[in-house]
Structures are given as structure tokens and as C-alpha cells.
Amino acid sequence: MRAWLTLGVLLVPVLSACTVGGQRSASAENDRLRRQIIDLEAQAAAARGERDELAHKLRETLRAGAVPAADAVEALPVATRIVIDAMSGLDPADRALPATHVAVAFRPLDGRGRFVQIAGSALIEVVALPADIRAGSEGEPARLAVFTCTPMQLRDAYREGLGGARYEFSLPLSQPLVRSSGGTPTLVLRVELTDGLMRAVHRAERTIPGGQ
Fold first, then answer.
1. pTM given for the model
2. pLDDT in 10s for each residue of the chain, 212 residues
3. What is the DSSP letter of 140?
4. Distance in angstroms (rounded) separating the CA atoms of residues 46 and 37
5. In terms of C-beta density within 10 A (0-12 exposed, 13-18 middle, 19 or more buried), how is residue 98 classed?
6. Alpha helices (runs of H) in the chain, residue ranges in sequence order
7. SS3 label, residue 206
8. 8 A C-beta contact, residue 135 and residue 106
């Protein structure tokens, strides 16, 4: 009887170790697969960006009727999309003060997701949505500001600093906007950027909730 008890005591740690080890192995394998999926998704996104970039280059090359060196075309960065910066919004940022401007910053990105300067024009629009969207609430969407910038104005709007490289504009409001808890409208920012060299149009939109 004592021999069976002794054998049982010896087997418990062994079986426990096998179970724990199996769980750890499965967890490690799941982590490896997750990392592999993330890497594959990143590679696919990069490939799509580089494909779009090459398509822009090819169209411009055919339009110009000239064939530049292949390595120069391959290395040429061109914008494939734009993003509106998260720091855009009512200005000044201090919510205790009335807003007098809307800051709009955006970045053209190449096929590798890097900022790239371009020569072109931009159309910027700021729309305010009512703070209360429940049925029966008062208020309608209203255009707070709209601005069309020339290629030279776009060049002058280039900024580089703590927030990284970007194009930044400050659009004045027709009248100061007083911000209050629950009463600040939601902003919708729209940018339409026309690349004057590539003849491409890029659009972006960003919604800024009234509480931000």
C-alpha cells in the first residue's frame, strides 16, 4: 500500500509538469502565429503602397513622353495618400477660451508611409455638427470655414517640429466659438489635395468629437 502511495506522489509532479509545459508551448505558438500575421499584414500594406507609388510614376512618365532612368523612377518618392493630423482642431487649445480659429494639419505620405513634400493646391473645409444628435434636437450642420490654397501657399505652410513634418493652416472663424461642457460641436475636417506634378487628387477626412 505504501508503495502505491509513494508512486502516486512521484507521478503527480511529472503529470503536472507535462500539462504546464503543454500550455506554455501552445501559448508560445499562438504568440508566434500572431506576430507572423502582423508581419504579413504590414508587408502587404507596404506592397500596396509601393504598387500605388509605381502606378503614379508610370502614368506621369507616359504623359511626359520621356523615359527617365529606371533607377531614378524607382527611387522617386511621390504621394499616394494624405492623413489629417490628430492635433488639428479648435484654436486656442485651451477650452476655457473662445475658439477663434481652426488649425488643420495634414501630411502627404508616399508608398512607404513617409512624409513627402509636393507641389500642388489644396481645398480645406471645416464643418460643424450639432453637439446633440438626439431626435428633436435643434441645430443643423454648418460650414465654419473653407479655404483654397495655391501651390505657393502650400509650400509656405510647410512645418517641421515636435509633431513631425506637415502642412499646417489656421482658418479664422467668422465669430468666436464659446466652448462649454456638452455644448461644443463636433468638427468634420476635409482636405482635398491636388498634386500638380503627378496630376493625382488625394482626399482625407477626420472627425473631432466636441469633447476633445
1. 0.67
2. 544 444 444 444 444 444 455 555 777 778 788 888 887 777 777 667 766 776 776 666 666 666 667 777 777 888 999 999 999 999 998 888 999 999 999 999 999 999 999 999 999 999 998 876 665 556 688 899 999 999 999 999 999 988 899 999 999 999 998 887 667 889 999 999 999 888 899 999 999 988 66
3. -
4. 14
5. middle
6. 2-64, 70-75, 151-156
7. strand
8. no
